[in-house]
Design a protein that fits this description.
It is built from 10 helices and 8 strands. The chain is an alpha/beta fold. The chain has a single domain, classed as Arginase, Chain A (3-Layer(aba) Sandwich). The protein has an 8-stranded parallel sheet, sandwiched between helices. Helix 9 packs parallel to helix 10.
Length: 319
């Protein structure tokens, strides 16, 4: 274990309900300098078109992450022994100005990326991923694996509004932040506005794996294909908690029945393998619609799963 690596507060010494609330009970720092992985909150849901509340997601995910322990029970990965990671706080946002918030989020993530730290953020609605990608993909388009009930590649909402949580990946492809032929969307389901709603995404080369196909094939087969599509180049992981069935994750803005079990979601994250992950997020946890914190707990658990995968990858590169 690196002697200078940050360590979480031990629940055997300080009970989980006590002390400051931070991601994984890690130290809170004002800068990502010296970190391998920076955990960030993005408390903003200005792109939400119906049930707002994801602005409160980072705080509740922090609270539920106190239930995470030091090591993964399957892989044995102890991320805090492999990498230096801390909670760098919440990014600055403007709750009444969408475009200003996008600029603030981009600037905040850029400052983290410039230190060399890998950003893993907790939102916030899915539009927050767009400014994150703007910060990470400055040198050229990257790949992405998206766990989601919705494609989020629509063009406009309410007239000519081009920026909502239903449009981020159309904008990201138009801005050449994403290589659509290296984008995989897993778990897409639910009614759509139009029978051809996904035609644009498919025409760009995005691989959409609908929930029905996932149910037939299973996690291992689907993730094998996903890894092959994104390949060995830079890849972003985005996890919309609405990919999980609302019976297990009700606290989200746009729930869709027939989704993944929380166990299937964990399994897929573990199957990311040694991809060249350059950033990740968990979005759309909306505590006002949650029941006993189970959605925030799902978000915190997926955050730990992502932390284990990325920590192992960073450690592997050092060897």
């Amino acid at each position: 274990m690196g002697s200078s690596f940050h360590q979480p507060v031990d629940a055997a010494d300080v009970p989980r309900f006590a002390g400051h609330s931070t991601f994984m009970r890690l130290p809170a720092t004002s800068s990502a300098a010296g970190l391998d992985i920076a955990l960030i909150g993005i408390p903003w849901d200005g792109g939400t078109t119906n049930r707002a509340g994801a602005r409160h997601g980072p705080r509740e995910v922090r609270n539920q992450s106190s239930l995470m322990r030091r090591a993964h029970h399957v892989s044995g990965i102890a991320p805090f022994d492999l990498v230096n990671v801390a909670d760098v706080g919440d990014l600055s946002v403007n709750p009444i100005d969408l475009m200003d918030s996008l600029s603030r989020i981009e600037a905040g993530i850029s400052a983290i990326v410039c230190t060399g730290a890998l950003p893993i953020s907790v939102g916030g609605d899915h539009l927050t991923t767009l400014p994150v990608l703007r910060s990470i993909a400055r040198t050229g388009p990257i790949g992405m694996i998206q766990f989601d009930a919705h494609s989020d590649t629509n063009d406009t909402y309410f007239g000519d509004n081009r920026y909502t949580h239903g449009t981020p990946f159309r904008r990201a492809i138009e801005e050449r932040l994403l290589d659509p032929e290296r984008v995989v969307q897993i778990g897409i389901r639910g009614s759509v506005y139009d029978p051809g709603e996904h035609d644009w995404a498919k025409a760009q080369g995005i691989r959409i794996i609908y929930m029905e196909e996932f149910s037939r094939r299973g996690a291992e087969s689907v993730m094998e294909e996903a890894r092959a599509i994104v390949g060995t180049s830079s890849t972003y992981i985005t996890f919309d908690v609405d990919c999980i069935d609302p019976s297990m994750a009700p606290g989200t803005g746009t729930p869709e029945i027939g989704g993944f079990s929380s166990r299937e979601a964990q399994q897929m994250i573990r199957l990311l393998g040694d991809l060249e992950i350059v950033g990740a997020d968990i979005v759309e946890v909306a505590p006002p619609f949650d029941l006993s914190g189970i959605t925030a707990l799902a978000g915190a658990t997926i955050l730990f799963e992502l932390l284990c995968v990325t920590a192992a990858n960073i450690d592997r590169k050092r060897r």
